[in-house]
Amino acid sequence: KTCEGKMLIVLLCAVLLPSVSASDYHYIKDYIKYSDFYPKFNWSTVPKEELSAFLQWDKVNTSLRDLGSKQNLFMGAEFNVDHLLIPPFTSLDKMQYSMSTAGNACKWAATQPNAHKFTMQKCFAGLTYSIKTDQQFRAHNLCWGKYNPKWLTEGNYRPNQLQHILRHHITTVIKQLGGHGSVYCYDVVNEALNETGLKPADPWYPAVPDYVQDAFRAASKAAPSSVKLFYNDYGGEGMNEKSDTIYNHIKKWKDEHVLVSGVGLQMHVSIDHFPPFSEVQENMKRLAALDLEVHITEMDVDCDPCGKEELAKQAYIYHGMLKACLEVNACKNFETWGFTDKYTWRGTKEHPLPFDQHYNPKPAFWALVKALKGY
Hints:
Order of helices and strands: HHHEHEHHEHHEHEHEEHEHEH
Number of helices: 13
Mean pLDDT: 91
Shape: globular
Strand order of the largest sheet: 1-2-3-4-5-6-8-9
Structural class: alpha/beta
Radius of gyration: 20 Å
């Protein structure tokens, strides 16, 4: 793959994947290798006629958001705020989706680029759009060990100073967004854990051992009680060491009277590596038993090459994950990281989303429709 490896190199990928907006490369993100979490799937276990059924559909005008509302489920999608100026993009988004995430616009580097200045305009733009289109808004995210400005990561702050900076940032962002409109939930902390526990997070960990609890406590103090506070992560969607770690840490935090309302399961997968649907359902159920709301927050399915057979496999995965979500009452949102292959952090050549680069529905879209209709 063009950008395979532990790190996604900004300039190289910006050149090799020109269909992705340059704004998607403002930070270096770990390339999520799902082979690290899930073994290669044996497609011979799925009957060919079951796969081929995903290549047949009735081409009728239908809306995921309308079908989802009948199941008490949000159907969500991430977008780049800059793309809201593109008419076919926004018309499709507002027709199909009921939950929105404004890409990088609400992350630290966008909202507090220097120590004494908050710039919330793009985050506000995402929220304003969601209100106008009657969508719920997910504010992503308040604390992460990536995509942080240099003043924060290179400031040589003492632990007590970092605690103050973290609390001040979270409080300010929540108060400003709250004054601008209604937010459904915040991803308070993003990707803090690996298989064994807390992982290095620049500048938070190990400098501030309890930074996750501090972040949630600051958020719960600043946010209205109706707003949900989420922990969001990848690689722990099924039943494995990482999902055990996520479960155990959240249980521990809740035992410490830290308010965590929900867990986001990112679900960046490929047609060869993805968690078994039954395990996703089992994991959701145990999280629900902790009185947590569960969301699939960033799903995409790498499909490269992506011929007819691969499109059927991709559709099968989307269908199975949505069915797993529908089987668990606590699963309230099924969200993809983007919706058209034209704009995706993976690059158009990976074809990871339900609509192609021309905004046409793919078999994956019709697979989601089938799941929402109960078959």
